[in-house]
Design goal:
The protein has 88 residues and is mainly alpha-helical. 58% of the residues lie in helices and 7% in strands. The protein is globular, with a radius of gyration of 15 Å.
Length: 88
Amino acid sequence: MYIDTSLLMTGEEFLDHLQVGLYTRLAVRRRHYEAARGWLARFTLPLRALDGLHLALADVEGLRLATADQDLSRSARSLGVAVTFVRA
């Protein structure tokens, strides 16, 4: 089995960044699920369940979402969620 070592390094780098405080872990709360459910129930945006949850976390907590997913970026803008589109 071939294992891409760059993936292992990326995972290790993420853990290092988490440990030094570059990222913050957020507990997913009922209010986040409810916000996501409301957006998903509209059926007007190309949102998947976890996309909706990511948007809800960013919106409810007043955070900016960074994504390389163009559909997610457009959906965030449509919902008024702060977003930065990262070109891959």
